[in-house]
Amino acid sequence: MKDSIHQRHIRVAISYFAMAALLGVLLRFYPIFSFGFNYRYMVHAHSHIALLGWVYVALTTLIHYCFVEKGTSDKKYTRIFWFTQVSLVGMLLTFPFQGYALFSIFFSTLFLIMSYVFFHYFSRNSDPKFRHGNSLRCIKAALWYMVISSLGPWALGIIMGTLGAQSIWYRLAIYFYLHFQYNGWMLLALIGLFLFAMERRDMVIPKKSFMWFFWILNAGVVLTFFLSTLWIEPSPLLYVLAGIGAIAQGCGLVLLWAMAKNDIKVLPLSKLQALLMKTAVFLVFIKIALQLLTALPYFARIATMYLDLTIGYLHMTFLGMISIGLFFLVDYFGLFVISKKAYQWYFWGFLVTEILIFYKGFAAWVQWPIFNGYMEILALVSLSILCGLLLLMDLNRNRT
């Protein structure tokens, strides 16, 4: 019998994803209908609810479900979960109306504190039988990256009070946070959960081989932060370090795939689960290829000059690699059903919006015109993502 607590919490996470998608649709229609809201404030709400409501809640729920001994500390976990929801709902109700201001900063700070509480809770309560597993090592590293990433938001307050929001350090603090979120916390957590699925079937990567992968990948995670500094056209050394980081991250992930691909064949996957996993893996390697490309000075400048290329990359990472990876995991562990029809709505919306966003950035680069009706088509296609998520929620509404 499935754990109903974790099922409910995953449904909460998907609800945040749907809310973030709704905010995204409103942002897409903003240039068409000139809504009365503040566009920048709504972007803050959209991004916070997507990253912290959907991805954070889904990952921490999965981590608790897999690695914490059942029944040992459910009350503590439940309190942490609901205090976290207070912070998320607070952000949802404040960011659209005031941006970064007193109340939104209060709820953002509360969220950071609750993420530290979860980190401490997990460190004390992870099941001892997983202590020497490769999967738990990845999860612990992921949680450390989550904590490290939070230095960015803490630094923002100091920077705004001293150097101002126009300082390059303001943007660097944001990029520091984002980098260690998606390249560290989220990526390592997904890998750790995938390795847990393998270990549960008694498929274990030899320790020596795993450690090669682990340290190469972590070197890549740290060094690829310098990709986020190339917009300031720094010294050649940082380009070299960024390039080494991109190569190391790519080598680490290739090594993992080479070690795991034969065992994956014997995982009890449905056709849809296999498709979800292969799609997430494919997008990981697209991401790595783009990182390698932007380590070159010319392409680093292009990515900086044309914002749509950066937006397309971030959406590919969050809506593609991370979200589809999470779809695979919640379905595989039986916490949430991903239906083929709903996923098709989601995926085609994701794919077409990616093509359109990258097209706009590429067109600006090579000075092509943007075709008539571009904004209307992009807005309408964005509805497909929301429809897919609403279908998923409806399918799982009555599950127990």
TrEMBL record:
Taxonomic superkingdom: Bacteria
Keyword Membrane included in the entry's annotation: yes
Transmembrane segments: 12-33, 45-68, 80-97, 103-122, 143-168, 174-198, 210-232, 238-259, 280-300, 312-338, 345-368, 374-393
Keyword set includes Membrane: yes
Coiled coil (UniProt feature): none
Keyword field: Membrane, Transmembrane, Transmembrane helix
UniProt protein name: Uncharacterized protein
Species this protein is from: Flagellimonas abyssi
